Each structure stands twice: as C-alpha cells, then as structure tokens.
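User: Predict the complex with iron/sulfur cluster.
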Amino acid sequence: MAKKCYAIGGRINFNEDTVSLCHGIDIGDKIIWKMGDDGEFTPQYYREKTEELNKKNQGKHPACAGCSNLREGNVTSEKIEIITINPMYYCQNRCIYCGNFRGAMESRYHPLPVIKQFMEEGMIAEHCLFDWGGGEPTISDIFEETFLFLLHQGYMQRVNTNAVKMSDVVLHNLDKGPVSLRISLDSGNYESFLATKGRNLFHRVISNVKKYREKTENLLLKYVITNTNSDEKSLNDFLNLAEKMKIKAICIDTDMLSYGWTDYPDLLRFTEKELHAAHFLQRKAHEKGLDVQIGYVWTARDYDTPSRDFNCIKSIEELILNDERYRLPDSLSEFHIARIQEFSAGIMPRVMASFETLLQEVKGRRVILYGAGKNGRGLWSALKEFGVKTDCFCDKYKAGQYVEGVRIITVDEMLKKLDEDTMVVITPCHVREILHEFNDNRYEELRGKLYYIDAFRFGRQVLEEIEMKEFV
Ligand code: SF4
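Assistant: Here is the predicted structure with iron/sulfur cluster placed in the model:
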C-alpha cells in the first residue's frame, strides 16, 4: 500500500524566503522552493515537486523517512486545504522558545499573486484554511492586502498574533468573515510574561486581547508551557484572566525547542514540573468550563501519533471548540528523562529571554563573561553600549591575554572572584560541555550565579530597537 501524507498535495507554507509543505517537528520542514535558487514558484512547479516527493516516498529510502505523518493508508487531499502564510520572521516579542524575531521587518516576496494562480487553476479547496504566522504577521507589509482579499473571497483565516499592536484591519473585519484569532499569551501576569516573552508588554497585550474579544468569540488564548511560566500563580492568573475576558477556549502547547533540539542550552526546560503544569492547566480550565486544545508539539517525541495539527477544518468555530484530538502525555518522554538524569543535580544556568531582562539582572552586579570568543566579545560590546562594564572574561584557552582591554582569567581565578554580587554569563552555545566540566569539577561556587543568553538575542537589530524604545 502506498505511503501518503496529508501535506503532500494538501498543504503549502509560504515562509520568509522558502515554500515548504509542513512545519514538521519530527524531521524538520519539507522545503520545496527556495527564493533565489529555484526560479519562480508556480502551480506547475508545485505539482512537479509533490509528484516527485510522492514517488520518492514509495522507494526503499523515503524522502520523508522518520516522519510520523507518512503512513500507509493515509489519504492525500485532492485540493489544498491548508495554506500558512509566514510573511516575515520579525516580531516585537523575544519569546524564550522562539527565534523568529531576527528577520527583516518586511516581506521578501508577496505570496498573493501565486495564491491567485492556484485559485485560478482550481487547486485550492473551498474550505481551505489560511493560517497566518511568522514572526508577527499583522505588521507585515503584505498583510492587509492579502487578508482583505481572502476575506472577500470568503476563505477561513486564522491569525496567530502576539497582540502587541492592535491590528485595525483585523479588528474591523473580525465579524465580516470567517476569521479566528490565536494569541500566545504564555503567561498570566507581568512577571511570567517578562520572563517568557522577554518584553515589558503584558498590560498592552491584555488590553488588546480585550478589544479583540469584544468583537469575536473565535479567539483562542495559547499557553506554551516552559520553565519560565510553569508556576501555579501564573497558571491561575492566566485562567482568571481568560474567565474575566469571557474567553471560550485555550490552547496548551509545549516548547518546540525543549522538545526538538537535543543540545539546546536550556537543558532542563521541560521537567516533571512543566508536565504537571500542563495537566493542572487543563484540569482547571475544564473546571471553569473552558474548552481546551492540546497543541501538536506534544506529539514530537511520540512517533506513534502523527504530528498534524489540523486539516479538513470545515468551519472557523472548529478551530477553538471541542478540539482535543491530542492528549497530554502522562509521563515525560525518554528524551526528557535522560536529560534530567544527566543534569538535574548539577549547576545550571538561568536562561534569559531577552537582552533587556539580562540588563535588569546585571544592574549593580559584577559581570564575568565565560568565553572570550565571538559571542563573548559581542556580549561585551552590547553591555558596554548600555553602560555595563564587564569585569573580566574567563577562558581557559586564552587566560593571560586581553580582549578589548579586558583581562582574560583562568577558571580558578574566576572561582576566587565569586561573591554574592557576581554573575557569570556563559557565552558559547555549547553549554552542555561547559556544564559537564563545571559539574565534574564540582564548582559549587557557581551555583545560582550562572546565566546564559543566546547570541541572537543581542544582535544589532535587537539592540537598535531597544535604543529606539519603540516597537512597530
Ligand atoms: S511526510 Fe512529514 S516531512 Fe514529509 S511532507 Fe508530510 S509532514 Fe512533511
């Protein structure tokens, strides 16, 4: 029997500079077109690529080997039922579980002309769902024209938005067609919002959610569970807010990075505490009469469950109501258990969502940067730009030298310098190795003083936005 997948022939994702068939969490996105490399993306190009992929998947070495969506007996849709539009990878938030805020603030290409070609060729199902994402889609330059065109054509649209900026075009058209909103709040209060999303925007977002809710019931509030928001206070605050705003449904998902990236530096991001938090949120939401959706990332370590989050949606209400096709896992995956066994007793860094939150931590403290490589020098320069002086670098390979006039010391020297007011920021991304070294050598002095921030969280564009103190 042929092995089929819903996405091959049934889905298209227009991404920042690629087109893919899925956002696969098992083996990664199946990219079929790259801007600049593959000529024009047309319906004919799409047909050829999907046919080719279907053929390859029947061979001894399937192109999609390892993906839980490729199965014998699966049916391929006759027409395209899901089109996601991710026009740019720029966002005003700095979510700890995401890096899609680093891109340009404008789209690299306009997907609407090609969407129209697909329509003219009758390749798009009447009930096709257009799913907006990104980055933040509502502030992209192609959003308004495309959104209004699809609205006038009567297509269902789901707008995944951060609600940092109220989109007037969305607000004024929510009741004029099949439009649904999914807003990742990921927190119930200012503190957990800041720790999870890295920005001081909680109150602004809540005010915008309220305005959207006044216009529509089709609004899903999402909570991506991670170790910065898994405390009961944040969960209870979130549910109370949802209740107060008369939200009908919430979505509980988990953090794709903690599930999908073996060497992600925040090695204990998902533990029993986070699993318990997810179950707690689901139970309490039910007690309050809220509908609950379980997001598809939970399937990432469960190869028996296909990781398809939606298809064959026939009405916009289906996106928020009575949708518990996935279950929360009852126990941690082998992957997480192994990681916890490896690190839970050890010294772990506190991982920062944004440069702003790191700046708050360094106030009045002595800063040592662990690692004098490219990331270390980049962080030194970013801190300097914001008036923070680095005390020294620590790098066993370069000890005794100077970088940017700052001394590089040995690990022993660093340990002697540690006091209550000192923090050490790990700058290389191979945190696992570094932590093994710290733990094998029992550098207990470091406990509670270690931090980590991804280098892309203090990139040039990010710093400029902080300086401007304005977010589009
Ligand atoms: S089989 Fe998996 S990887 Fe291949 S297109 Fe389908 S979802 Fe994507």
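The first helix runs from residue 43 to 58.
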